[in-house]
Design a protein that fits this description.
Blueprint lengths: L5 H23 L3 E5 L8 H10 L4 E4 L12 H14 L2 E9 L3 H14 L3 E5 L4 H12 L2 E5 L12 H8 L6 E6 H6 L4 H8 L3 E6 L1 E2 L7 E2 L8 H10 L5 E4 L8 H14 L1
Parallel strand pairs: 1-2, 1-10, 2-3, 3-4, 4-5, 5-6, 6-7, 7-10
Antiparallel strand pairs: 8-9
Helix pairs in contact: 2-3, 3-4, 8-9
Length: about 270
């Protein structure tokens, strides 16, 4: 066995400690990559869960159309979905409602979020219901993220300024669910959006689009969203919430989702 001099031993111990500290720092800034389940809207619940398990996805936002409030599901339907997720070891951390229009929608949003075990709800709503969402969700221990949209029609929340106006005067219970793809589609810089919304950011939809003014989703690295820079900025602000990959495509998306999840994890 070689003999280690005290000075050499001290340097080696210091090097080991430094390497451990660097590794801890990296772990502390690792982003939580999950999936928005609308990505699998053409699959059955059972087939979707098979795909999520293959990708080792542990956290999701429930955003399938049959669970949104346009045509509300039943509590039993939500519970059945929750049971499937529990058996698969998948946790629903957020529930996407679409538009909350009135108090009846608000009641359902709270009920379904609690059934799913979600601590956040994403959607859109305008005054005066936003104030009631703020008060109710605060009392229920939930948060709400205003989701920005852009399609070829006008939405209440398209730009960062639109979202910030909606948040004015509301408590920290209400924040933003930032869709970086739709932010780019309306001609805005997603990295700047992360930076400006950072204090109120609840959840991120990670998505790439073909270009400004385009609705078409593309694989990461093939569109106008600088996914690497978005993830770097999320690490810079020490974002702890779910970064949910969304990919809106009809037909089989299994290989595409494998590509997207792998790409995001390599950069996370």
């Amino acid at each position: 066995m070689p003999i280690l001099l005290p000075g050499l031993l001290s340097r080696r111990l210091f090097g080991t400690a430094l390497a451990g500290a660097v590794e801890c720092a990296r772990a502390a800034t690792r982003l939580n990559i999950g999936v928005g389940t609308f990505s699998y809207h053409t699959l059955s619940m059972e087939d979707m869960i098979v795909q999520l398990r293959r990708l080792k996805i542990r956290e999701i936002e429930m955003s399938r159309g049959e669970f949104m409030l346009m045509k509300p599901p039943s509590a039993a339907m939500c519970q059945a979905a929750r049971d499937k997720f529990d058996r698969a070891g998948i946790r629903c951390v957020s529930y996407y409602t679409a538009t909350i229009k009135n108090d009846a929608d608000l009641d359902l949003a709270v009920e379904f979020a609690k059934i799913f075990g979600a601590h956040n709800v994403s959607g859109d709503a305008t005054d005066p219901i936003l104030g009631r969402i703020d008060r109710r969700f605060t009392a229920e221990g939930l948060t709400f993220g205003i989701h920005n949209h852009w399609f070829k029609q006008k939405f209440a929340y398209e730009t960062v300024d639109d979202v910030l106006r909606g948040l004015k005067g509301l408590s920290g219970t209400v924040g933003a669910t930032l869709d970086v793809g739709q932010m780019a589609a309306c001609g805005q810089d997603p990295v700047d959006a992360v930076r400006r919304l950072a204090p109120r950011l609840k959840l991120v939809h990670l998505k790439d689009v073909a270009g400004a003014g385009a609705e078409h989703n593309v694989l990461f690295g093939r569109g106008v969203v600088d996914i690497r820079a978005v993830l770097r900025e999320l690490r810079a602000i020490d974002f702890k919430g779910l970064v949910a990959i969304e990919y809106e495509k009809d037909g089989n998306s299994d290989e595409d989702m494998k590509n997207l999840v792998g790409y995001a994890r390599r950069l996370a």
